[in-house]
């Protein structure tokens, strides 16, 4: 007998952590984009039923409430268009029912489509490309269960400078099933290349790392995203379930996403495991190893004097957030590996856009 499909299912801790990242990022993204644009778009490409089995709200409702409950909502007059895509009819019906019970203002429009993700996004992109028009700033959350969205679809989305994506990349699922011949076509489309097959000669963690880093490379080299960051989600056995990949072309976007990810993992390792206390979303209370950041910067800039904006960009492209205190603290240490040169008239140790940082030569 076939197993009956569940319309709603249990909310797992790693999914709750993912929702924290989603909500925190949208809390930062919405006021910025609505301030400078007349219209913005939020897409949930695998939206689900709207609620979990115990009544917890799903990603489309979280995304909707990020605007409706925002402390700056009164100042956000731009039109906010939500596109929720769900291929399963029963889950789509459930989502419609949940959304219908939420009152929305006139500047919010919600469209729910009972279609496959590729069909819905493909049609929207076809319209944009045929009209040769610039799409509104768009945040697309692409959160599939198994079979992934083709890289070409991500490339088409990101070809528009104001579009960015948060992708659930099923690393653990791929690691397990990619040797199966019937998955070859899916993997070819996922990566946009065939040399993922090198993973077939690997096992365990080596294969997992290869599958992850190859996708990261494709987001940079083929999709041509300026900034890419991933966050690893692990199951109750502390094994990788999937990676959340974020791709954007905007410095403010990657800064905001790092802040959102650090809300879940303050250690800076960008991971969450169901094996920890499920009631404690902020996993780690310890500080990241800031000495690693200092070593990274000294290695990159050894023996040179750099303007602070260049140092800031180097940090942005590292796993670390841009915080001034760790570098200011390092500059005050005996035998410090860097010196902060403040602009004329500024207080000693001041870091701003006019400051310089001198990095000592490494021995």
Walk me through the structure.
- A hairpin with a 5-residue loop joins β6 and β7.
- This protein has 12 helices and 11 strands.
- Helix content is 40%, strand content 17%.
- The strands form 2 sheets. Strands 3-2-1-4-5-7-6-8 form an 8-stranded mixed beta sheet, with helices on both faces. A 3-stranded antiparallel beta sheet has the order 9-11-10.
- α1 (13-36) runs antiparallel to α9.
A few lines on this structure:
The chain has 363 residues and is α/β, with parallel strands linked by helices. The protein contains twelve helices and eleven strands.
Structural topology:
Blueprint: H1 13-36, E1 39-44, H2 59-68, E2 79-85, H3 89-100, E3 108-113, H4 117-131, E4 138-142, H5 151-158, E5 163-169, H6 171-177, H7 184-191, H8 204-221, E6 227-234, E7 240-248, H9 251-264, E8 271-273, H10 290-301, E9 305-307, H11 308-316, H12 325-332, E10 338-341, E11 356-359
Parallel strand pairs: 1-2, 1-4, 2-3, 4-5, 6-8
Antiparallel strand pairs: 5-7, 6-7, 9-11, 10-11
Helix pairs in contact: 1-2, 1-9, 6-8
């Amino acid at each position: 007998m076939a197993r009956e499909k569940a319309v709603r299912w249990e909310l797992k801790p790693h999914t709750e952590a993912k929702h924290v990242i989603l909500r925190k990022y949208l809390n930062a993204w919405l006021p910025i984009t609505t301030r400078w644009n007349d219209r913005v778009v939020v897409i949930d490409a695998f939206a689900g039923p709207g609620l979990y089995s115990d009544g917890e709200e799903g990603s489309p409702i979280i995304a909707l409430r990020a605007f409706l409950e925002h402390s700056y909502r009164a100042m956000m007059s731009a039109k906010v268009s939500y596109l929720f895509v769900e291929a399963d009819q029963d889950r789509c019906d459930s989502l419609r029912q949940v959304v219908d019970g939420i009152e929305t203002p006139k500047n919010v429009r919600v469209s729910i489509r009972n279609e496959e993700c590729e069909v819905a996004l493909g049609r929207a992109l076809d319209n944009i490309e045929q009209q040769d028009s610039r799409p509104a700033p768009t945040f697309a959350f692409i959160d599939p269960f198994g079979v992934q969205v083709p890289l070409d679809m991500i490339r088409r989305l990101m070809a528009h400078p104001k579009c960015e994506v948060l992708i659930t990349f099923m690393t653990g699922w791929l690691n397990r099933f990619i040797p199966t011949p019937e998955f070859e076509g899916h993997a070819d489309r996922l990566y946009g290349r065939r040399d993922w097959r090198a993973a077939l000669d690997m096992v365990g963690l080596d294969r997992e790392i290869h599958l992850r880093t190859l996708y990261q490379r494709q987001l940079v080299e083929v999709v041509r995203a300026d900034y890419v960051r991933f966050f690893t989600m692990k199951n109750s056995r502390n094994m990788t379930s999937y990676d959340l990949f974020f791709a954007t072309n905007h410095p403010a976007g990657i800064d905001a996403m790092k802040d959102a990810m650090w809300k879940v993992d303050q250690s800076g390792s960008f991971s969450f495991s169901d094996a920890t206390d499920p009631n404690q979303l902020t996993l780690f209370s310890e500080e990241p190893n800031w000495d690693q950041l200092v070593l990274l910067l000294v290695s990159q800039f050894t023996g040179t004097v750099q303007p602070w904006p260049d140092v800031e960009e180097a940090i942005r492209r590292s796993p670390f957030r841009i915080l001034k205190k760790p570098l200011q603290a390092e500059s005050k240490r005996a035998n410090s590996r860097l010196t902060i040169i403040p602009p004329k008239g500024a207080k000693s140790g001041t870091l701003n856009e006019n400051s310089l940082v001198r990095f000592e030569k490494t021995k």
